[in-house]
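Hi there,

I know you've been waiting on this one. I reran it after we fixed the sequence typo, so this is the corrected version. Both the input and the resulting structure follow.
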Amino acid sequence: MKYLRAAFLGIALLFSFYVSGQDIHFSQFNTSPLNLNPALTGAINGKARVIANYRNQWPQILQDDSYRTYALSYDRRQNLKSGDYFGVGASFFGDVGGSTRFGTIQVNLSLSFAKTISKSGSVSHTIIGGLQSGIAQRKIDVNTLRWPSSVDNDGIAVYYNPFGSLDQTDFLYYNIDAGLLWVSKFGERKSFFAGVSAFHVNEPNVSFQINSDQPLSIRTSIHAGAELPLSSRLTLLPNIMYLTQGIHAQLNIGTMLSTSILADSLFSNFQGGIYYRAGRDLAGRIHSDAIITVLSAQVQGIQLSFSYDFTISDLNYDNVGGMEVSVGYVFGANNKKVKPFEVPQF
C-alpha cells in the first residue's frame, strides 16, 4: 500500500503540472449552479439561495494528500413588474491536493437577466443570459517536492528536478465567464431546461514561469434536464451534462427520483438517483470513469445531499472513489415541498 500511495502521488503531481488548465468539478453539478452556468444566477423559487459544497477525491489512497474541493455561493433575484427578473450572486471556489498543496482559490461576481418570451396560462418559455467575472489565485508549495534520484560517477545520489525551478509559487489572474439558459414550463412539476456556458473566455495565463505563456483553456458546458411527474408524490428528474476543456471531455448522465410522501413531516422531500460519468484521457480515448450514487433530503427547507463516486476505470481497486456533500437553503421559497435544487426554480 505504501508503494501504491507513492505511485499515486507521483502520477497526481505530474498530472497537475500537465493539466494545470483543467477546472474543478463536482459530481453534484446541479448543486453548484454558479460553477455550471452564470445564467443560473437567481434561478430560484424564492428570494435568495445559499449553497455550500465539499468534495474529497481519492482519500483511500492519497489520505491527507487527497484532492479536496469546496465552494460557497449566494445568489438572489429581483423580480420586475413585467414578470422578468435580474439575478445577482457571489461565489467562492477552491481546491487543494497532493503533497505540494497545489491549488486554486477563486472569487466571482455574477449577473443574469431573464426574459419571458411567451406565456399562456401555466405554459411559459424564458431565456436567461448570465455574465460572471472574478479573481483567482493559484499556488504551490515547492518545499515539499521530492524527485527521483540518479547516481553520479562517484556513486553519490543526486536529486534532480525535471521541471526546473519555478519563478513564482503563487500568482493572481482574472476570469470572464458567460452563459445562456432556456426554460420551458408546461404546468405544475412539468418543465424542461437547456443551457450552454463558457468559462475563462479571456484565456488567462496560468504559468508559474514569468516569461512563459500557458493559457487556461476555455471550459464549455452543455447541460439539460427536465421535471416529469410520475404521480402526485413522485417526480423524475433526468439530467445530462457534457463539458470540454482543452483536450479533456466529460459526460455525466443520469436521473433522480424525488418523492414528497412525507411532505407534512420534518423531512419534506427525499431524492435518490444514479449517474454515469465518462471521460476522455490524454490520448483522446473515451473511457468509463465512475458510477455516482446520490441521496438527498429536505429538512425544514434545508437541502442536504450526499454522493459517492464508485470508480469503474482502470484505477478501480480498494474501492477508490470520491465523496461529496452539499447543503443549500432557499430564502422566501414559494413552495419548499416540491422544488428540489436539481432543476431551475422559478
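Quick highlight: The CA atoms of residues 207 and 214 lie 5 Å apart.

Best,
R. S.
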